[in-house]
Structures are given as C-alpha cells and as structure tokens.
Amino acid sequence: MERKHFETCLSGAVQLRHLSNNLETLLKRDFLKLLPLELSFYLLKWLDPQTLLTCCLVSKQWNKVISARTEVWQTACKNSGWQIDDSVQDALHWRKVYLKAILRMKQLEDHEAFETSSLIGHSARVHALYCKDGLLCTGLDDLSAKLWDVSTGQCVYGIQTHTCAAVKFDEQKLVTGSFDNTVACWEWSSKARTQHFRGHTGAGGLPFFKGFYSY
What we know:
The structure is a single chain. By secondary structure, this protein is of the alpha+beta class. The chain has 2 domains: 81 residues, Monooxygenase (Up-down Bundle), CATH 1.20.1280; 73 residues, Thrombin, subunit H (Beta Barrel). The protein contains 7 helices and 8 strands, in the order αααααααββββββββ. The chain has a 4-stranded antiparallel sheet with strand order 1-2-3-4, with no helix packed on it. The radius of gyration is 33 Å and the shape is elongated.
C-alpha cells in the first residue's frame, strides 16, 4: 500500500514537471516570431521610447528587429517633439539620435551638459552677446565692444563704440544697436565707424540686413 502511494506521488511529480515545462513554452510565446513582421512593427510603433529600449533587452532577436526598423525610431523621435528629416532612412542613425538626445537631457537635468569658462577683460556690465563660428561678441556699458575666441578665451578685437544694446558681426564688420537710439557699423581692422543711422525711438535692435553682415 505504501509502495503504491509512493509511486503515485512520484508519478504526480513527473507529471507536474512535464506540465510545467510545456506551460512555460505555451505561456512564453514570442509574438515577434509568431506574428507577421508588418503587424509586429505596427504594434511596436505605439510603444513609448523608454519601453522600446527595455524591449531591446529582452533578447538578441528583439534587439535586432527593433533596432532595424527606421519607422520605430523616427516615431520615437517625433513623439518626443523633435523635428526630423524623413528622407533619412537609416534605423541605426535614428536610434543613435534618440539615445544621444536622451543622454543630453539627462546631462541637462544633472547640470553636466556644458563646460563653463570665464572671459576676463570686461570693465563694465555686458548688455549684448552674439556668438558665431566659435567667436563671441560682447557689447559693454563702458562704450566698447569686444570679440572673443571662445576656445582660447582670448580677446581678438576691441572697439570703442556707443553703449551697446545689441551686437552682430562678420569677419570684417561689427554692427551695434545702442541705447542712444542709433545703429552703427564698424570695421574690425581700423576700429573706425563707417556708417551711423539715426531715427529710432528706442534702443536699436538688429534684425538681419543684407550688406551689413552675414550669418
């Protein structure tokens, strides 16, 4: 009687193990393999970017499929509010763009996104800034403007001007808008004022004027 009970228990354990192994196979079905690819891609498009990255960790197959779909990562970028060029059909490119942006946002949150440096040489308050091609122009309260090389921190040019409310420049010229309601054009090389415009009723701002400076 005891032997029969033991065999019944043993048989039950074997059956449970067999059932467990088969249930695991039945319950853990990979829909990326079972569904048509078009349907799988359609479903993936509705996942948020963070979930997509998590899905890439499920298996090599999932990572390969998800990473290879241009539409998935383009949609992820669009859903995050970024403007993209739809003509670029390179899935790895868009995944790198997304990952780089995520890293950048984290750096911004942690205040680690930018390196800071100081430009030494101002003797008064800075009212105006304009940066272009690694150069920074500053308009000061001491009737001067300076052009700086951002990479070295060195002052390239310094010009005596009026009190600057706005500044813009190119390789040859500097254009300034002043609190005295005038706009002036200056030459870097000679430090001379070449043109002077009056008639504003407020501090001179500087929209783009063809012929004075270029971007």
